[in-house]
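Run HfaB protein through structure prediction, thanks.
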Amino acid sequence: MKSAGRILSVASVAAALAGCISPVADTTGRYAEPIGNAPVINNETPYSNALRCIARSSRNVSTAPRIAVGNIQDYTGKAEPEGGRKVTQGAALMAISALAKAGVRQVERYDTGVTELELKYANNKLIGDQDGQAFRQIVAGTIRGSDYYLVGGITELNFNIRSGGVDGFFSDLDTDGAKANLLVNQFVMNVGLDLRLVDSRTLEVIDVVSYQKQIIGREIKAGVFDFFGGNIFDIAAGEKALEPLQLAVRSVIERAVLEMIVPVYGIDPAPCANFGKNGDPLGEIYYDAPRGQQNADSGMRTAAAPVRPYDYYSEPVFTGLRGRVN
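Sure, done. The structure for HfaB protein is below.
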């Protein structure tokens, strides 16, 4: 009778859980109410606020250069066992968003399919802009050109750089005694990125950035097994957590964009030095401070002050984005 009662109890719980799903759609057109109520939030990294600060500082730049983003591919070659890549294939889109946070003037070069089709239709006089009363004119020089373009790729994905943990087990000498186990593991991996900024007119590579970010994961599990009054109790609890891999890629991209934009715009990075509670973990960062006037036509520096976004000197021009521009 006791066994039958236990079976009925378990069956009642199962039926109650199954009651959350109905084979008949409700008035909203759903079989079940989705769980979760997390709102949509901004996709932030530790460098997002610094990029916005750069955007505020760059408003005084009279002739800001235009930058295009090319293809930033995944070169790691790492794939999931069930198919698909381990690393995001949207690094170029992340770079576009990072440049937008920094207030950079951008021109589209990543996906020009619609523009090319529009030009084709306009060339055949098939597009009208005034309810068919007039066809769209193709005017020379309408499309804005870029001064620089950003390309590169995700070049590293290293698993299990280091791991460690504790795995313990306790057991009473009595065969019916209590038993317990504890498992604590941690591991570290990293992702690396190489980007370059290229002069669109001369194809000179004026800046190269190579950064990496480490990612940590952990696993904690504890369990107890015991016989009590003829009943078996097996209780376990645990947690697994992994720092988001794709968010790490976004963080590396935003840090690289920040590194490149400051010298190109020729602004003082000191007011934007605060990257959060832990600060910027990078060491000293040196670059050739802007010394000349910008060319009003292109936003580039004159020949007397060539663009050299960063060089290494014995004395830092600025340190950790906290120093001053000479």
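The CA atoms of residues 81 and 87 lie 13 Å apart.
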